[in-house]
Amino acid sequence: MRLLLISSALILIPLSSAQNAPTPPPAAAPATTAAAKSPSQSIGMYVYPKANQAADVQAKDESECYASAKQNSGVDPQAPPPAAQPQAAQNASAPKGGAVKGSAKGAAGGAAIGAITGDAGTGAAVGATAGAVAGRRAQKKANKAAEQQNQQAQQQAQQQAAAQQGASLDSFKRAFSACLDARHYSVQ
After folding, report:
1. Would you give per-residue pLDDT tens digits along the chain (188 residues)?
2. How is residue 54 annotated by DSSP?
3. What angle do CA 91, 102, 136 make, to 5 degrees?
4. Which of 32, 102, 108, 164 is 20 to 30 A from 41 in CA distance terms?
5. What pLDDT shows up at residue 185?
6. What does pTM read for this prediction?
7. What pLDDT is attached to residue 153?
8. Pairing assessment for the beta strands 185-187 and 47-49 based on DSSP bridges
9. Separation between Cα atoms, residue 138 and residue 134, nearest integer Å
10. Closest Cα partner for 171 from 69, 61, 36, 43?
């Protein structure tokens, strides 16, 4: 029992001294993450005061000109670009049933040749097999061409969307720059 009391006391003494120890101050967050981007920085522009405006005045002017440019140009550079239109799974002009059509043509041709030689049934079977193979090969070739056309059309649509987004952003930047220029800032 005595041993139990001594061991309990030895365990509690370090715990009570740890509770009274001073706690270190919390670590400060890095200064680089605390600073938010200004409106001009968010669109990749540089703004310098011509009339020695204070930083808080410049921030206010940038925010007001950003809102004005957004309203006047109808463009919001922080909005995500419009989603691309979903592509159709297959082009409507892609042929279907090439093996069946080729088989039917081959069977007809094989039956005609077989009739001449005296065995129309064997000729039709051989012709159907050859026609199915040829029809399937033609269908694969046509499907590949249709897929390439779809890819080219999708690529062209993406390029047009990127060009339109760039033109819209240029319009916004011109409106933003004009507003800040009127407030005596140099904007690049």
Report:
1. 555 555 555 565 555 555 555 555 555 544 443 357 889 999 999 999 999 999 999 999 999 999 999 999 999 888 877 665 555 444 445 556 656 666 666 656 666 566 666 666 676 676 777 777 777 888 888 899 999 999 999 999 999 988 988 888 999 999 999 999 999 999 99
2. -
3. 55
4. 164
5. 95
6. 0.51
7. 94
8. antiparallel
9. 6
10. 69
Buried b (16+ CB within 10 A) or exposed e, 30-48: eeeeeeeebbbeebebebe
What is the chain written as a DSSP string? Answer: -HHHHHHHHHHHHHHHHHHHSPPPPPPPPPHHHHSPPPHHHHTT--EEESS---HHHHHHHHHHHHHHHHHHH---TTSPPPPPPPPPSS-TTS---HHHHHHHHHHHHHHHHHHHHT-HHHHHHHHHHHHHHHHHHHHHHHHHHHHHHHHHHHHHHHHHHHHHHHHHHHHHHHHHHHHHHHTTEEE-
Q: What is the DSSP string of 93-146?
A: TS---HHHHHHHHHHHHHHHHHHHHT-HHHHHHHHHHHHHHHHHHHHHHHHHHH
Going by C-alpha positions, the residue among 25, 63, 100 that lies closest to residue 176 is 63
CB neighbours of 14 closer than 8 A, spacing ≥ 6?
Answer: none
Q: Which two tokens stand for residue 6?
A: 């001594």
